[in-house]
Write a structure and sequence with these properties.
The chain is α+β, with helices and mostly antiparallel strands. The protein contains 3 helices and 5 strands. It has a 5-stranded antiparallel sheet, covered by helices on one side. The radius of gyration is 14 Å and the shape is globular. Bound molecules: guanosine-5'-monophosphate (5GP) and zinc ion. The site of zinc ion has 6 residues, from helix 1.
Length: 117
């Protein structure tokens, strides 16, 4: 935990970096990815700093539930249920994580290949 000043997403939560917000709650923020990989590409983060999803589940499982609920709200707002969508949590270097503030990618709006690269 901690890491507020050096963390990109903590700075975004603090309003120091602009973001296109889709929705938010007391504990979570959903905003559009700056480099979208699909027509809908939204990041859902806890407002509090955690390094990854495992840290949220270990320390504050309720926040993990909040992140999931916000992701599903994004799915509904973007009308992705019928076509389908993908929730992704890249974790660690080998998992492709580049920002070490936990986040869930909500991807949809096109057919998504499997397995991922
Ligand atoms: P990761 O690679 O850690 O799974 O995902 C990090 C995501 O954050 C990437 O998809 C990247 O495009 C996005 N990102 C990086 N910097 C910013 C930023 O300043 N604003 C927004 N909205 N997204 C960002
Ligand atoms: Zn952070």
């Amino acid at each position: 935990m901690s890491a507020t000043e050096d963390c990109l997403f903590c700075r975004l939560v603090a309003g120091q970096i602009p973001a296109t917000v889709v929705t938010e709650t007391d504990t979570t923020l959903a905003f559009r990815d700056i480099s979208p990989a699909a027509p809908t590409h939204v990041l859902v983060i806890p407002k509090q700093h955690f390094e990854n999803m495992a840290e949220i589940v270990t320390r504050q499982p309720q926040v993990m539930s909040d992140v999931m609920a916000t992701a599903i709200e994004v799915v509904q707002r973007e009308s992705l249920e019928e076509q389908g969508y993908r929730l992704v949590a890249n974790t660690g270097e080998g998992g492709g994580q580049t920002v070490y503030h936990a986040h869930l990618h909500v991807l949809g709006g096109r057919g998504l290949g499997w397995p991922p690269g």
